[in-house]
Amino acid sequence: MTTAAQVDLLIGKRARLALAHASACVYVPVTPKPSSPLAVMVGLGNALRLAQVFGGETLQLRKEAAEKIARRNELIKKSAKLGATQRELAKRHDLTVRHIRRILGD
């Protein structure tokens, strides 16, 4: 399970997106206080739930657009392995063949 999925289960997708929008990297204190930046962003209850799982860690959260692009790129790579041509993939995903080549090169 991805970090984003775990955070969604703990505090909900809307709170995670707000958190990701505020900062790509978020420190989760072991014991959040009401004045901690995390508690201010998502509320003390959500901060405490995050601390139970991620206390003392720094979370790297992607913004939703970056998540969609990462999922699309994984789908493109899987389709290519199954035999789809670069031209087919470009047409299917409304991208250029050159961009498909860049994705497949990653």
Walkthrough of the structure:
This protein has 106 residues and is mainly alpha-helical. The chain folds into 2 domains: 60 residues, no CATH class; 41 residues, no CATH class. It is built from 7 helices and 2 strands; from the N terminus they run ααβααβααα. The chain has a two-stranded antiparallel ribbon. The longest helix has 18 residues. It starts with a helix and ends with a helix. The mean pLDDT is 89.
Largest sheet report = 2 strands, antiparallel
- Helical fraction equals 55-70%
Query: Approximately how much beta-strand content do the residues carry?
Result: 5-15%
Give the N-terminus to C-terminus distance in angstroms. Answer: 22 Å
Total of domains: 2
How many helices? The count is 7
Structural class: mainly alpha
What average pLDDT do the residues reach?
Answer: 89
